[in-house]
Amino acid sequence: MARQFVGLDLGTAHTRIWTPEGGVILRSPSAAAIDSESHRIVALGADARRMLGKTPAGILAFRPIKDGVVSDFEVTSLMLEAFFTEKQIRSTFRRPSVVMATPYRITEVEQLAAENAVLEAGARAVGQIPAIYAAAAGAGLRVLSPRGCMIVNIGAGTTEAAVISAGGIISAKSVKMAGERFDTTLINYLRSNGELLVGDATAEELKIRVGAALSGIRRESARAYGRHARTGMGASLTVTSDDVFRAVHPAVDAIARIILATLENVPPEISADVHSYGFMLCGGSACLPGIDGALAQATGLRVTMAREPMDCVIRGLGKIIRDNRLWGEGLNLRTRSLF
Ligand SMILES: Nc1ncnc2c1ncn2[C@@H]1O[C@H](COP(=O)(O)OP(=O)(O)OP(=O)(O)O)[C@@H](O)[C@H]1O
Ligand SMILES: [Mg+2]
User: Fold this and answer.
1) Could you tell me which residues come within 8 angstroms of residue 205 by beta carbon, excluding any fewer than 6 positions away?
2) Is 12 in the pocket of ligand 1 (CB under 6 A)?
3) Residue 141, domain member (yes or no)
4) For position 90, which CATH number holds?
5) Least distant ligand from the CA of 284
6) CB-CB neighbours of 215 under 10 Å
7) Strand, helix or coil at 289?
8) 37 and 79 together in one domain
């Protein structure tokens, strides 16, 4: 590849950037706070995320990516421009060429929105690779081997599963059910079982602190603070790992069904490979204790946890940028350029 590319994983919860010189140089919440008059960024990443739902008049905090796709074009491009500038991969004299990871089978309109947001943020050129293919490469699967392998990425907004062989995607599924769905199910559980209303951030914090995807995994319990569903007064409740398990297990089961559906209609030899070796699990929600065991139980497949599961997509983009051969067949990068 003549041009030096920069890798971009624009996720629902996190944005990650890879450069040839620095490796993974950015891991930041996908969030920005904007001054509503000047349309300038006043806070970025973790700072902006903390401001969600708490901004003073005149400032708006956003998470511009929903379910893995651009939902607010202007904020996405402002946020990316700020990340590019902060990390010095864009300046008056420097415009990056970007390879971005995108969900499998996003619509053409969503694809164009993602590309345009990156170009608007100051990129010279942009191309896309299916995030799930990059995840497989980043997780260390031998994507070029004719032996079939399977990767599952459970992020914040999307779960994707793919069977890969000889550098191509044989079968893949992408659904809008992942970590944020676990948070919502916990919110509903606490409302129905404890008459406690909690917000998204509290639910996510509880899930990360005490959550489990299998029953019997004992972690500490935590006090959840919110509002009483009937009286509206401040209230609190002790939440245990088993509470989180009971809340999230229908969603985990649904993810298991998606994984099995990805294997339907796969040629028999490749299906046999996956049945022998199982699948590799990655993404931030792979960090939920017991999720590997729960998915192994529900699918009957062996589950291997990827190393640094949150970085598989971005590291995979880096590997692919470094080594052209990993492109494989059918992944021709169609690069759109400003010029
Ligand atoms: N220890 C943990 N236990 C459970 N869930 C976790 C843990 N750590 C992170 N998560 C969840 O992982 C998700 C973020 O994962 P990740 O960064 O892979 O998502 P993303 O790439 O931004 O989203 P997507 O790929 O869906 O667009 C969040 O929902 C977060 O709550
Ligand atoms: Mg992701």
Assistant:
1) none
2) yes
3) no
4) 3.30.420.40
5) 1
6) 12
7) coil
8) yes
